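Below is how a single chain appears once it has passed through the pipeline. First comes the sequence as given, then the structure the pipeline wrote out for it. We keep one example in the README because the format questions we get most often are answered faster by looking than by reading.
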Amino acid sequence: MARSTWHVVVVLLAAALVARAAAADLPGIAGAKRIVFLGDSITYGGQYIEILDAYLAARFPDSPHELLDLGLPSETASGLSEPGHAGGKFPRPDLHERLARVLAKTKPDLVVACYGMNCGIYYPLGEERFEKFRSGITRLHEEVEKAGAKIVHITPPTFDPQPIQQRTLPAGLPEYRQPYAGYNEVLDRYSEWLLAQRDKGWQVIDLHGPMNRLLAKQRESDPKFILAGDGVHMNVTGHWLAAQQILLAWGAPAADITSAQAPEDLLKRMPNGESIGKLCQQRQRLLKDAWLTNVGHLRPGMKQGLPLAEAEKQAAELSKQIQTLARP
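Resulting structure:
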């Protein structure tokens, strides 16, 4: 090969290495090694976190980020619980009962919090309940910042009464042991308030608005289209939408995100992406129960999980496999 040709090859390789180094992170989470996700059962379900984890591992193999799912089913940031919750077995757990322990034990650089769905306890909009939500979220924000971490809020997912219309209740009742049919209007207000906090410098990612719009658009051609079979817990399409909004807010290339119809499409485009996705799913599901048990909570019926040290040891082995696949 001619000297000039070798020179071109060397220059191109050097440029590629520089580009890779520059693209080894997303601007929205630069410097955040440990990212802790807080929320209710939607966050605990964690599919959107698994997608984020797999994308970062496959697209940015030098990414330093560790994603920990500490969502807790039934939890609220408002501290409220409706009468007869869980058939009267237990009240909804309050985030603030465990928040100090979460922050002390995980020592996050960034917290991603998605609350609201449970916070209005499925009642019509009421000023007292709304204030409990506002004060609970504000307290969360302040406590995270006091701990030296940054926080990003996500507006709550959409509540869809259509799949459960036989179990919803009308306005004007003194008590709601089943969801109010218009509860999504309550979440509209909660989301509007959260988005307004951007004026104070808060980072808020909107999921509620995009979910509302997608649901309305799809139902124009398919009246039976759903994003949550029980009206609350997102299906894979809903989790994919959540992951998209977060990745775009973090600065992921729009060409990666908006052109993919599903997480599988996204991962197929990257070397060993599907295999990396499966390993990231294993790692996430292994660690979340271990961390929840280690931190402690008041929610009965949760899996114990492995002792944290053992879970982290197994997770480290999975991480080695992921790194090998991410650098073919």
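The chain has a mean pLDDT of 93.

See the next section for the split statistics.
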